[in-house]
Amino acid sequence: MNDIEQIFINDQVRLLRKSRFAGCCVTISLLIAPIICIVVILRPSNKVVSELKQDSLWFPSAGSESCIRLMDIDGDGLDDVIVSLTDVTTIANEENKDENHSLFCKSFDVEEPCSGTVYGIRGYDFKILWSFRIKQSIFELVCDMIDINNDGYNDCIGAGRQATVVAFDARHGKVIWDSRQIKSRHLLWNFYNPILLSIDVDHDGMNDILISHGGNPTIPSNVHEREAGCLIIISSRSGHQIGEAFFMPDG
Questions:
Q1: What does R_g of the chain's alpha carbons equal in angstroms?
Q2: Are residues 160 and 137 in contact, defined by beta-carbon separation less than 8 angstroms?
Q3: Which Gene Ontology CC terms are recorded (predicted)?
Q4: If you write DSSP's letter for every residue of 73-135 in order, what string do you get?
Q5: Domain residues of the chain, as ranges?
């Protein structure tokens, strides 16, 4: 082997060593970089999670069947939360009927079992802005269809179990009317799907509401002969029933 060949071989060996070293560096970098990123990300996020655990709202004896609505309650330009919660024992039909509970409901001017509560919660820190009691659990919350009290902001209508219907001012958490004005209601039936009609039925200057009513929870699920539900028109302004209920077979 002459000198030129020896020099060529030595150069190739050096290049091979350099390429292996570079490959090792790349591999180590790829392994270390994600670890550094995870550490950087998790350290502040752990602090946030721990703060949320201390500051979040917890309702240990409550559940919810409610949808959630986002709207700017306090006028700061950010979305807040409107949601309904209900005492879990009432959802399980273990209602408390004692005299003290009756007095408790009367103190809120709400029908028994007065187990539901609607909350307005500030979106960015979960502070409760307002709350009020309602009769029972709410399924539906509609907050984008009508300004009932003419203050320039849309109000909400909630509908749910045991003939619960309530219209309220979402900015202040004040009840405008409830289902006690609906003469055809059945106290055990549910209300569903309030919709705004395209006409003003009672000619009071405000389009009115159509709502469905039915679903007797006392009838076992294996009994297929059901009571007919009905459609009811409600005055948007006052909550009073307009006309008679229209009963629907299998409704």
A1: 31
A2: yes
A3: membrane
A4: SSSSSS-EEEEEEEEHHHHTT----SHHHHHHHHHTT--TT--EEEEEE-TTT--EEEEEEES
A5: 62-247
